[in-house]
């Protein structure tokens, strides 16, 4: 299968690309930063895997058209994400819109572009990398929470529209994962809450999770790989929550 991973140079994206490549799939590492994507793809090809890189701005229609015309994509993994932490009244409107464009409109437009090919081949898998914030909310993250909540509804509609073929779409929702994006959030939340970074980790990030641990990128990648296996062919429109028991409360 040809697997397109957006935001592929980040911690989650590259782990997903690595696990799919090691499972024998052809992976396309798509990222805004082409040089980094090429470096990461070269690391995989050096291990004997099939990997390539492409520059992709998920908010740019021309980029989406170029990417999807170049590859027959069997599996789309919508992973690209950004974050901004601020009270709503302090949230720059352009930044608010950017978060929705990257994490909701982008996945929708990419899905729209790959669906005709998937329908023609009678096979397709779309996996959205959501967040615990697709299910719950935290202060100062209005745009991020809105985008991730929207992914769940979007996925249900697309699943219904394509239930007549061998197609599934699902959303993986992890609690906090120790990635560079989260490292930045720790610093930003420390400033917003007037706490130390360690206090942010203990009192905000891990406090709601009974297991008190960050989710590993390898867990997310393995879940994505499972969703593309024959055993998951009837799992569609679902939210797979990796939260250490957070939402059990």
Automatic annotation (TrEMBL):
Cross-referenced InterPro entries: 3-OHbutyrate_DH, NAD(P)-bd_dom_sf, Sc_DH/Rdtase_CS, SDR, SDR_fam
GO biological process, one term: monocarboxylic acid metabolic process
Source taxon at top rank: Bacteria
Pfam family, one: adh_short
GO-annotated molecular function: 3-hydroxybutyrate dehydrogenase activity
Family, as annotated: Belongs to the short-chain dehydrogenases/reductases (SDR) family.
Protein name: 3-hydroxybutyrate dehydrogenase
Species the sequence originates in: Rheinheimera nanhaiensis E407-8
């Amino acid at each position: 299968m040809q697997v397109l991973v957006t935001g592929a140079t980040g911690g989650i994206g590259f782990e997903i690309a690595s696990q799919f490549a090691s499972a024998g799939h052809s992976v396309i590492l798509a990222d805004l930063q082409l040089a980094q994507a090429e470096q990461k793809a070269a690391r995989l090809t050096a291990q004997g895997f099939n990997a390539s890189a492409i520059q992709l701005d998920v908010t740019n229609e021309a980029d989406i058209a170029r990417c999807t015309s170049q590859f027959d994509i069997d599996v789309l993994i919508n992973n690209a994400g950004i974050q901004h932490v601020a009270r709503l009244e302090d949230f720059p409107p352009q930044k608010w819109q950017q978060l929705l464009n990257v994490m909701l409109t982008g996945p929708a437009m990419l899905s729209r572009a790959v669906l005709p090919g998937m329908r023609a081949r009678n096979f397709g898998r779309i996996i959205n990398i959501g967040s615990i914030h697709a299910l719950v909310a935290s202060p100062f993250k209005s745009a991020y929470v809105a985008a991730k909540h929207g992914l769940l509804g979007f996925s249900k509609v697309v699943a219904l529209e394509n239930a007549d073929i061998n197609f599934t779409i699902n959303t993986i929702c992890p609690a906090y994962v120790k990635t560079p994006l989260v490292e930045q959030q720790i610093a930003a939340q420390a400033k917003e809450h007037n706490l130390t970074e360690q206090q942010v980790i203990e009192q905000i990030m891990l406090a709601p999770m009974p297991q008190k641990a960050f989710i590993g990128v390898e867990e997310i990648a393995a879940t994505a790989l499972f969703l593309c296996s024959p055993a998951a062919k009837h799992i569609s429109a679902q939210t797979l929550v990796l939260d250490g028991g957070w939402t059990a409360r």
